[in-house]
């Protein structure tokens, strides 16, 4: 028992010492949209060349947040490169602009893999909250020009990813309009601002913007982590996409935290860090 504990302590110290404290490359421009640069930061692990890449999208209700506070730097301690992506917020553009930016960043990262040393064939997406919605959409919405966009060019490169991690993200706006109409129907609410209208006024667009409706034959493996007590994104959003994955016989892992809210330290305990890292390692390594 003592030896096992010592081993865990040593492993934790190794991971901590290997973590990158700041970006290896800052403010790399992946696209210019109407004269405005869209940038990303890149964190590379110390010891790995041709390492897998995790592309991270921040939360903030699609209207706030920054790629400068990613919260995933710890993955470099497990040998992953991490790119944190800036995308247009809803005060600038409505959906699908945010997804176009996400896919443009993935294509840029894949096209520039030889320059920075990570493996273009092993890319996953991770997001928190609204960023998780984009991470899922980037992984699930393939082969649709309306959702792909041309932001940043690099159209010869694919935006396909190998795995997705969803931290408490929205998956079905039609369902959300039923369980949380204050988030979807009211002018100024987060989903209203994303879509440019109430869900009930444009259900077709709401479906196109919902990850659950894109689960199909090519759905990448998905890890879902959500709080049972989440007041902002109801846990039914997690249950919905898990059900769609299971119906399509696609690989999905789910962790529902019984006392979990919308984010918080519990989601990033060593236990869940290890689970997320193991999932990404299984599907990207």
TrEMBL record:
Keyword tags: Hydrolase
A GO molecular-function descriptor: hydrolase activity
A Pfam entry, by short name: BD-FAE
Domain of life, source organism: Bacteria
Coiled coil ranges: none
Gene3D superfamilies named among the record's database cross-references: alpha/beta hydrolase
InterPro entries found in the cross-reference section: AB_hydrolase_fold, BD-FAE-like_dom, GDXG_lipolytic_enzyme
Domain BD-FAE-like: 40-241
Residue ranges of the TM segments: none
Protein's name according to its UniProt entry: Lipase
Annotated source species: Roseibacillus persicicus
